[in-house]
Design brief:
The chain is of the alpha/beta class and 232 residues long. It folds into two domains: 3-142, Rossmann fold (3-Layer(aba) Sandwich), CATH 3.40.50; 160-227, no CATH class. The chain has helices at 3-8, 30-42, 53-62, 79-87, 104-114, 127-137, 160-173, 180-193, 197-207, 215-227, and strands at residues 22-26, 46-50, 67-71, 73-74, 77-78, 95-100, 118-121. Helix 2 (30-42) links the parallel strand 1 and strand 2 (46-50). Helix 7 packs antiparallel against helix 8 and helix 8 packs antiparallel against helix 9 (197-207). The N and C termini lie far apart (51 Å).
Length: 232
């Protein structure tokens, strides 16, 4: 890297360890996206969001993101495919992370095999964990110098985003091209991110009923949740 490029790059600090970085988040959940947005901004990074594989490709064809976080379940395909493509890309991002609302034991190994540097399980809400995973994968010359205070700070996105996710799930359920199993998985991610044990249990059971027609049960579950005052 030439001297001019080094001088032009913003210098990260212990308080803002990702200063100068651009994070591309590939995630269709509004609630999960808002959590990552808050974490990135508090770390000093710029953030952009793509809610599908197609949108991610448009972003990546326009600019180079230093950090890419890919949800494995996306409405138009598997996030593993994007991770595998980025592994061999001419301009590979410095950090490629995978995330999912499914249990890490089910998906982490596949994500690492596809080329992810690390796996971020949902909910993604701890500032220390978010920064540590990314800094652990960044090249040495992009890490801040000096001691970094690691606190216990967490972020709490606007709960209104949860109702937006439920409405999104309802729209997906009405799209005949989207498998109902994907909607069940999406709800599992919403449940983990929102710390909703009851929703997680119900959506997890539905996600495992692969041979059944689970659309009516999913519709009833979403309708019930949208009617609850605490969601809206």
């Amino acid at each position: 890297m030439d001297e001019i490029a080094l001088m032009a790059r913003p210098v990260p600090t212990p308080a803002r360890p990702l200063f100068g970085q651009t994070v591309l988040l590939v995630e269709d959940s509004r609630f999960a996206s808002e959590a990552v947005r808050l974490l990135a901004l508090r770390s000093g990074a710029r953030i952009r969001r793509a809610d599908s594989l197609a949108a991610a490709e448009r972003h990546l064809n326009t600019y180079r993101a230093g950090i890419v976080i890919v949800d494995l379940g996306l409405p138009d395909g598997d996030g593993l495919d994007l991770i595998a493509r980025l592994r061999t890309a001419a301009q590979r991002p410095d950090v490629v992370l995978a995330t999912s609302g499914r249990d890490a034991s089910e998906v982490e190994a596949a994500a690492l095999d596809a080329g992810a540097d690390a796996f971020l399980p949902k909910p993604i809400e701890s500032l220390a964990a978010f920064q540590s995973v990314i800094l652990g994968a960044l090249p040495d010359d992009q890490r801040p110098k000096g001691l970094r205070v690691v606190g216990a700070e967490t972020v709490e996105p606007d709960r209104l985003a949860l109702s937006e996710d439920l409405l999104h799930a309802e729209r997906l359920l009405g799209d005949g091209s989207v498998p109902p199993g994907f909607v069940a998985d999406f709800l599992r991610g919403v449940a983990r991110t929102g710390h909703d044990a009851a929703l997680l249990s119900q959506s997890d059971k539905l996600a495992r009923r692969a041979v059944d027609d689970i659309r009516p049960a999913l519709h009833a579950l979403i309708t019930e949740r949208l009617a609850e005052p605490r969601v809206v």
